Amino acid sequence: MDDLHQTVLHDLHVDLGARMVPFAGYVMPVQYPLGVMKEHLHCRAAAGLFDVSHMGQVAIRPHSGDIADAARALETLVPVDLLGLGAGRQRYALFTSDAGGILDDLMVANRGDHLFVVVNAACKAGDLAHMRAHLSETCAVDELSDRALLALQGPQAEAALARLVPEVTTLRFMDVIGADTVFGPLILSRSGYTGEDGFEISVPNAAAVDLARALLDDDAVQPIGLGARDSLRLEAGLCLYGNDIDTTTTPIEAALAWAIQKARRPGGPRAGGYPGADVVGAQLTSGAARTRVGLLPEGRAPVRAGAGLFAGTEGGDVIGTVTSGAFGPSLGAPMSMGYVPTGLAGPGTKLFADLRGKRHPVTVAALPFRPATFKR
Amino acid sequence: MKYTEEHEWLRIEDDLVVVGITEHAAEQLGDLVFVELPDEGRMVVKDEEVVVIESVKAASDIMAPVDGEIVEVNGALIDNPALVNEDPTGDGWFFKMKLEDVSVMDDMMDEEAYLKFIG
């Protein structure tokens, strides 16, 4: 694992007994001694601390000093209303390709005088090049490589974080604030990737270990690895870039039309104007041939990514593919997501997945599998 | 107790051989979430896939460590696969086999050899 990057929390993970694995060019904790199942349940019952420092943190600063110029510039790359994103608010967004596929999914926050963007680790270099190529005329695109990123998720996340940063109690879901603390200047958002209430905390590298240790001092907080992160996000119906969405899936096929606000849709004041807008706009109007859905397999066996989907018990062509699948510890059952023809996307539709050469019954289910508990 | 390179353990109990996976294997696999057991009475040959297990990470097959008849399976694992993680060499056993000839186990690793094998 010599050629892999380490986050500043690497030695802490090892101290905590983590099993480290390669992930998106980094060596990351997949699980701690608690194990994936208990880590997952702990996060839903109390609070879980995640190191997500491998993700890219980027500041987009308008040369003019006017945040609207940064919003307008970034709107040329995403089908999302950023001019309508108020100061101190955050929004989910997608970089689209000319074909209408998804280059990456990201979070965009309006920090008053600049946009603060968080992108996936595996796409970080490409995203930075993409933004610099298209935004440099109006904006400076700076990777904040001097910052680590922690996520604190779960029903006791607010109480645990408020001991260190009291102002977080004022945040609602998708609010973002800066706070000057003993850990340096933090950027805190009330968001995450688990379906739980919680926070993502951008912290200067130099103070990241101290902040993590201070949070872990709280009995309610346990460190959570990538294994449980995956089952938590899947129960919450959230996409994993590279699995559930990629350059071959459009936002509409991916059932992410909700991320495209009215202002950017056909007929809206700033319709189109992003890569692939012809494809995505047409699908917004007329629908897509296939749709990402939730799938509940019969029994206890998980149906994992790559499994083919079929309409019947025998013969017939593959009609779709599972893109994520795992056992849901809180669900107490296996769960999958995948793409199916839109005509077969209705909840309750019975389909079959290839499971070790057999046609295994699965039922289309509404997402999320488990309702979110955000503080709206 | 005898061990295979597939990280199974075998223990003679009366005239049967009980089979499970080692603590090392259970730890490597992570939390088990699904176990599919063979039918009792099935005749199996060495290296035939007899049990399917799914952990939080991946699916794996458990092979028959020797030729013989599956005479009993641990039905408790169906509803509680976690038994394999909690007590891999006790309550987490998979199946019991009747062997024609238990001397086939003589060449298998003992505990010392297995511990060396897993380093």
Description:
The complex is a heterodimer of chains A (376) and B (119). With 376 residues, chain A is of the alpha+beta class. Among the domains of chain A are: 10-55 and 146-235, Probable tRNA modification gtpase trme, domain 1 (Gyrase A, domain 2, 2-Layer Sandwich), CATH 3.30.1360; 289-376, Beta Barrel (Elongation Factor Tu (Ef-tu), domain 3). Chain A has helices spanning 10-15, 36-45, 67-75, 124-135, 157-162, 205-216, 226-235, 277-286; strands spanning 19-23, 26-31, 47-51, 56-62, 90-96, 102-110, 115-119, 139-143, 147-153, 176-181, 184-189, 198-204, 221-223, 290-297, 308-310, 320-328, 333-341, 350-355, 358-365. In chain A, the strands form four sheets. A six-stranded mixed sheet of chain A has the order 10-11-12-9-3-13. In chain A, helix 2 (36-45) packs across helix 7 (226-235). The model of chain A has no long low-confidence stretch (mean pLDDT 97). With 119 residues, chain B is an alpha+beta fold. In chain B, strand 2 (8-13) and strand 3 (16-21) form a beta hairpin. In chain B, the strands form two sheets. A six-stranded antiparallel sheet of chain B has the order 1-2-3-9-8-5. Chain B has a three-stranded antiparallel sheet with strand order 4-6-7. Chain B has four helices and nine strands; from the N terminus they run E-E-E-H-E-E-E-E-E-H-H-E-H. Helices cover 18% and strands 36% of the residues of chain B. The model of chain B has no long low-confidence stretch (mean pLDDT 95). At the A-B interface, helix 2 of A face strand 4 of B.
